[in-house]
Every structure is written in C-alpha cells, then in structure tokens.
Amino acid sequence: MQTSSALTRQQLAAFSSFAQTMADRVRPLSRKWFRHPLAVDTKADASPVTQADREVESALRGAIASHYPDHGIFGEEFGASHAEAEFVWSLDPIDGTRAFISGNPLWGTLLALLHRGKPVLGVIDIPMLDERWLGAADSPSRLGGEACHVSACAELRQAILYATSPDIFEGAELAAFDALTRAVRMRRYGGDCYSYGLLASGHVDLVVEAGLQPYDYLALMPVVEGAGGIITDWSGQPLSLESQGRVVAAATPQLHRQAMRVLGAAMT
Questions:
Q1: Pick from 57, 190, 211, 193: which is nearest to 135 by CA?
Q2: What pTM was estimated for this model as a whole?
Q3: Could you tell me if 113 and 121 are in contact, meaning their C-beta atoms sit under 8 angstroms apart?
Q4: Which domains does the chain have, with CATH numbers?
C-alpha cells in the first residue's frame, strides 16, 4: 500500500498520532460500561446498539471536528458527514457489540482514515486487552509499537480460519463458507475485528466473513496489508465503500487464491 503523491509521510505520521490519541481517550468510555447493566436497543438492521456505542462515537466525532474541521466522517451510529471531503474518517465505536453485551472482551474500536476514498490508516484497538494494531501506508503494521507480520501459511489444509459467527452467512454464502471450512486445518468462531489483528500477527491464517459494512472493514485493510497479508471481497476485488460486505483476508497470496477457488466454485 502506497501513499498518494499528495499525502506526505509527515501528514500520515500526524494522523497516526491523532488516531491513537483518540483511541486512548475513548477507552475509558467503553470500559466503564463493559460488564455493567445497560440498555440494549435494536437498530433497523436488527443489530444491537448501546449507550456505550453512542458515547464513544460522539467523543470521536467531537475530537475530529475540533482538530480537523474540514475532514469528513462516516460512522456506524450517526452516519455520514461531509463525506465528499478529501479526508474522511471511518468510525466503528464498538465493533462486536454482541460480544460487548455478553461480557466477551474481544470487541474493539475501529478507526480508519480515507484519503480520496482509499484507506491509508487503520487502527484496531482492543480496550479490555490493552492491545492495539496500527496500519499505515508505506509502513509495516505494528502491535503495541512492535512490527508484526502474517504467517507463511500457503496451504488450505494447514490454515487456521476464523469467522465471527456462522450466523453471518446466508444461502449460497453459507454453503460456500462450509465448503471452505471443510478444506482447512481448523475453524474457529468469535473475535470480530480481533481476528484480523491475530491474522496480522501470524496467529490466524484466514478470516472469511459476510454482511459487513464499510466501517467494519475499512480500518482492517491497512493493518492486514501492512503486515503482508491480503484482504479483498469474495470476487478478489479491492474493498471499497461500495463493496457488498463479503470479506476474505489471507496470510499469503497462495492461500488467498485457494480460498477464492473454493468460495467461487461453491457460489456458482
């Protein structure tokens, strides 16, 4: 992943510092609600939302408006604002709300910065585990300040595959996912964004999901790619704001090609 000619390393370093400062500031907001009673509402798409989601996103939006008033924002809870701007922040205040409300600590806050529609910066912050992955264009991804890298797994039969839940797949998607999981060494569920951090650090080889929204995957892209991995849609095309929400992240090109063949054959 390369920076645009109009985006300097100094700018990217400043944005990276700001993103991490934002993540630091909202950690206490989400932590204070974790494993404490709180009302859970159901959104129009049947997904859950809590006061914690709204508080965190509101704080993130306030910080961006204060420091970069000309930047746009695309957030899960409060939608898009100034989305035509050169720089747009994608916000998922609590990725894994179902995990959050059930006491599972593997939820996270996702922050991405898009420059002219392309993600150039991504943060996967896991507050309860005090872990944070940072991915930025032209730089290796980092976990807690240390460079991280995907595994060398090149064979499906040796791969560890993760997905958030089998419930995210429907119809032909479910059949395709089932065919793929029968070809791998091990399949595991849970993790939401945490699975992609594990992939970036070489512990997981493949993550396959469906039904995601842009704020679910935009922050993941710089992290996975900066760690040497590949992340696309199920057709092998780059992910974008217009993608259909089917995501394949793989440690190596060989593994990605094999997974794509299985998914493609099952979907036809």
A1: 193
A2: 0.94
A3: yes
A4: 9-147 (3.30.540.10), 156-267 (3.40.190.80)
